[in-house]
């Protein structure tokens, strides 16, 4: 069952990644580095504000859902209720940032931040609906909708950006795609029902308490790809920021693979109480992600500049080396994703992962900033990659300490490939 689910979810996420790449190409070419920098500032600011006000509530909702203490319809209502409240607070904070000239008022407008906040809200709701569907076993439907979401975004952006090439249209096109998928999903799969008697105060209290414990985990996970932008926004021009932000956004997208894998493995782990079986599931996941990372590193190492130039234009050629450096750091985070899910949703220890991610986030801001001051964009990339790698390494140490089993022991490459072949054979 697990392998069948993986065989459905992972290819769908690959298609979604391809469409997402098309989105990035369109935005980069239509807005150019200067506009791409403004777009990055808007996305970074609005996402951090929404995540900070939403806390880690989705983890509390998913915790209850996985343990069958609430239904998918209840989970959807709790999501919309808590996310809407967070969105309203985010709009107020974004207005204050611009009105009182607290944050980059000379580079972004209130309208841009408001639209970006709407995108952050719609993306949060759409992503969590997809997670709920996957947890409930609707792997194929969730995968199809995930691909449809990116396709709709791309179509809407093409129409809007060709007619009116601006940051506002890029953000608005993405919102349209999210809204269509969220509306269809909630109606088609009966997430939305006009019965609010199922809302329970004790569930909301639990969700917010769990969310507060997961706050720094959520802030880090949803905005790690933007912390570098925030750290550099006061140091660099929009053009240089756009070059860095493009590289970071591209590499951060690779996380869709481990995230998709976790959506399948978490429910499977919950139904299997045996510690050895859970350990083997984590180990197989880590092994597969390690092989994936080892395959990507040489590709980016040799051909990052030609690839970036071909896809995004000569204006972004400096993003090539930055993307390679960032992926080296992100590889640790990618490989450690199954451990995040293990601690946060399987054994219910979000505070542990939150502490590690808070450390990583703090280090990212500091190392990215000081790296940029000393060595420009390359120094910023090295600083970000180092911080991300330290966070991933800490996860492995925490898992080894809590389980008494080490996933960091030397494994020869032949055995890795042998394990992957066995998995592939079983899927076929």
Topology:
Elements: H1 2-54, H2 57-66, H3 72-99, H4 110-135, H5 139-163, H6 167-188, H7 201-213, H8 215-232, H9 238-252, H10 256-271, H11 275-312, H12 319-346, H13 350-403, H14 413-427
Structure, explained:
This protein is mostly helical and 428 residues long. The protein has 2 domains: 1-213, no CATH class; 222-428, no CATH class. Helix content is 84%, strand content 0%. The chain contains 14 helices and no strands. It has helices at 2-54, 57-66, 72-99, 110-135, 139-163, 167-188, 201-213, 215-232, 238-252, 256-271, 275-312, 319-346, 350-403, 413-427. Helix 1 crosses helix 8, helix 10 (256-271) runs antiparallel to helix 11 (275-312) and helix 11 crosses helix 14.
The number of helical elements comes to: 14
Low-confidence stretches: none
Given helix and strand content, the structural type is mainly alpha
Total strands: the figure is: 0
Following the backbone from N to C, one meets helices and strands in this order, namely: HHHHHHHHHHHHHH
Determine Rg (CA atoms, Å): 21 Å
Number of domains: 2
The end-to-end span amounts to: 13 Å
Helix coverage percent: over 70%
- Main sheet makeup: none
β-sheet strand percentage: under 5%
